[in-house]
Amino acid sequence: MCVCRVEPGKWTPAKRKNYNLLDAVYRHTIQVYPKCWGAILLTFDNCGMWNIRSEILEKRYLGQQLYVNVGPPELSQRDEYSFPANGLRCGIIQGLPDPQPPRDSL
After folding, report:
1. For the Plastocyanin-like domain, which residue ranges apply (predicted)?
2. Which end of the chain is flanked by fewer CB atoms within 10 Å, N or C?
3. Is the pTM of this model over 0.85?
4. Strand locations in the chain, DSSP E?
C-alpha cells in the first residue's frame, strides 16, 4: 500500500490533484487521526478476497472494513468462498440476498 496523502479536514474531489503518485511512501499501515482523511493506493497482485480493515477491533462494526474480490481473468468464482453468513453488511447492500454462484462452479 502506498500512502498518497493524509490531511486534516474533509475530503473533496478537488483534493485528488494533491495526491503524491510519483514517489508515495510504501507502508503496511497508515494512521489517520480524528477529523482527518487518508488516500492510499493499493495493488492487488493476485486473485482472491482481500480485506482492508481497521486494526482496532471495536471500530470494525462502524464500517471500517472493506472486502475486495479480485477475480481471475475468466470471471469465475468457483475457487472463492462466499461472504460469511455472520458478516456485517451496511449501506445499499444491507438486506440484499447473497449472490448466486456462477453456473460453472456448481
Report:
1. 3-70
2. C
3. no
4. 2-8, 25-26, 36-41, 48-53, 65-70
d(CA 5, CA 20): 6
Alpha-carbon dihedral angle through residues 91, 52, 45, 68, given to the nearest 10 degrees: -20
Q: Which residue is associated with the grid cell 468462498?
A: 81
- My answer on whether 36 and 53 are in the same domain is no
Rounded Cα gap, residues 25 and 68, in angstroms: 22
Number of independent structural domains in the chain: 2
- CA–CA gap between residue 21 and residue 10 (Å, rounded): 20
Residues 30 and 9 in one domain: yes
Cell of 24: 508515495
Q: Does 92 fall in a domain?
A: no
